[in-house]
Design brief:
The protein has five helices and four strands, in the order H-H-H-E-H-E-E-H-E. The chain has 173 residues and is of the alpha+beta class. Helix content is 49%, strand content 15%.
C-alpha cells in the first residue's frame, strides 16, 4: 500500500509540462515556421521569374511567326533593326488594321519595362534574332545575359544593361 501511495505521489509530481519544456517547443516550432516562410518567398520569386520567361518566349514566338508569315517584308528588310517599347494603346489583330509594331507594343506591355528588338543576323541572310527584354529587379544590378561581342546573345539583346533580362530566338523565314 505504501508503494502505491509513493508511486501515486511521484506520478502527480511529474504530470504536465514544465514552462521550460513549453518554451523549448515554441522556439523549435518558430524556427521551423521561419524556414517555411523563407521557402515561400523563394518560391514566389521563382514563380514570377518563370512567368516573365514564359511571357517573353510567347512574345518572341508571336513576332517570329508574324515575320515568317510576311516573307516579302523580311526580304525587303522591313524588320531589320526593329526596336519597340511597350504600349497598350492599340492592341488587336492585324485583320483589324493593327500593324506589326502596334502588336509588338501590346505584347511587351505585359512585361515590366518590356522591349522587343529584331535584328538580321547577317545582312541579306533573312535570318533574324527576335529578342524580348524586361526589367528584372531580382538581378540586383546584374544583367540576365553575359558575353562579349560578337556573342549572339549580345547581338540579339543589345547592349548589356543592369537589372535587365533577355529572351531571344533565331528565326529563318
Amino acid at each position: 500500500m505504501k508503494n502505491q501511495q509513493a508511486l501515486s505521489q511521484q506520478l502527480r509530481k511529474q504530470s504536465g509540462l514544465t514552462l521550460l519544456e513549453v518554451m523549448v517547443t515554441v522556439v523549435i516550432l518558430s524556427l521551423g515556421l521561419l524556414g517555411l516562410a523563407g521557402l515561400q518567398m523563394t518560391g514566389l520569386k521563382n514563380n514570377r521569374n518563370a512567368y516573365y520567361q514564359t511571357v517573353a518566349a510567347q512574345v518572341a514566338q508571336d513576332l517570329a511567326e508574324r515575320i515568317k508569315a510576311d516573307q516579302a517584308g523580311a526580304k525587303a528588310n522591313a524588320y531589320d533593326n526593329f526596336s519597340i517599347d511597350a504600349d497598350v494603346s492599340k492592341c488587336g489583330d492585324p485583320k483589324d488594321g493593327v500593324t506589326f509594331s502596334d502588336r509588338a507594343k501590346c505584347l511587351v506591355a505585359s512585361l515590366p519595362g518590356g522591349q522587343v528588338q529584331v535584328h538580321e543576323v547577317v545582312n541579306g541572310s533573312n535570318t533574324f534574332y527576335v529578342a524580348t527584354r524586361w526589367t528584372d529587379l531580382q538581378l540586383n544590378g546584374a544583367n540576365g545575359w553575359a558575353g562579349a561581342k560578337p556573342d549572339p546573345v549580345i547581338l540579339a539583346c543589345g547592349d548589356v544593361k543592369a537589372d535587365t533580362n533577355c529572351y531571344y530566338t533565331v528565326i529563318l523565314p
